[in-house]
Amino acid sequence: MNRLVLVAAIVIGCLVMVPAQAHERNDGGYYTIVDELGRPVFMTGWKVNVGDQCLTTDNKRYEVTGISGDTAHAKFIGEVNLSAYAPSAPVRNHAFAVHLAPRVASAQGNKVAIYHTHSDESYVPTDGKESILGNGGIFKVGQAFGEALKAQGLQPIISNAKHDPHDNMAYERSRRTVADLLKQQPAAVFDVHRDALPAEGYATKINGQEMTKVQLVVGKYGPTGKQIEDYALKIKAAADQKHPGLIKGIFFAKGGDYNQDLHPRSMLLEVGSHTNSRAEAEKGIALFADAIPAVLGQTGGQPGTPAGATGLGTQQAGPSGASKSIGWIVALLVIGVIAFLFISTGGVKEAGAKLKRFTTTEFANFLGPKIGRKQRRDDRDDEGDDSR
């Protein structure tokens, strides 16, 4: 009997530890999230649960408090100030960093991994149907993303691994793909999807071109949820600077992780909907790529620029955080020595004289024994050569 109770406890414990994944709806419907006054603020094809949150295009954050049919009721939490997450302006080189910068490599590298958990997802106006097993139109959107990243001086690593069928186990299958991609040590990982909304949910016009918006999805389950959330806010802040209105918003799924626990810069993207054309999705993801160099701490490259040539830690982009820290340490050390000499001697002239004595007499005395020992060894070697 005791053994039976123990087994039951273990089974229940395992079930509790398994995340209640919040995946997309599979009934062809979608949710409209409304505020306290019943005004629509967000739409998503994801399965919405109480406690999920969303950030709108204009940075207003809501939390779902109840669900009635296809309507999710939410309370307004507040407006997020994304300026705190925006990429900082480039820092100019200073005297110490100029010498240190060439020795400092890019902190994260310039590789960006791209894959597709739902490899069947397609765009009806272009592909003819919303799902094509093993050859979804989403692959071409991922390819367009990679080409745009390459034009920015980054190195895309694209996986065309298939994870069909489109079910709740797809993320388990794609987890192996992520593990393989991580062997190449990418600076960021993107799982590229498309949503399931009416076309107007994603359609937009930027710079005179029709395209789709991009939505970010954050899995809040697990210990890395807050880290991924901050990363998503950084992405939106950078994209808002480059192309305001391109990011549809962020959906925070309380019960999902979506393999985002495997890498600190892992993000799930929804690029348009099945009702938008793939060409519009490709234009949207190409503009989205403009924001990625800033998010990764690198300056944006131009077509033809060698990958990483303007990366963090080079003279073109300014010193990295490491080189700046070392520079400040050296500077403070020099200032501290000068201040000590001034205080201990009482004047600039006396401090200069003491410093001169140190560099000539005391420093020479410190090196003298070592030099003397080396000279004696050399003399013995010469005597040995003469005797031979």
From TrEMBL:
Q: Which InterPro entries match?
A: Spore_II_P (IPR010897)
Which organism is the protein's source?
Anaeroselena agilis
Question: Which Pfam families does this chain map to?
Answer: SpoIIP (PF07454)
Protein's name in the database: Stage II sporulation protein P
**Residue span of region Disordered:** 369-388
Q: Does the keyword Chloroplast apply?
A: no
Kindly list any coiled-coil regions of this protein: none
> Which residues does UniProt assign to the signal peptide?
1-22
Keywords (alphabetical) are: Membrane, Signal, Transmembrane, Transmembrane helix
Transmembrane regions: 326-348
Q: Which domain of life is it from?
A: Bacteria
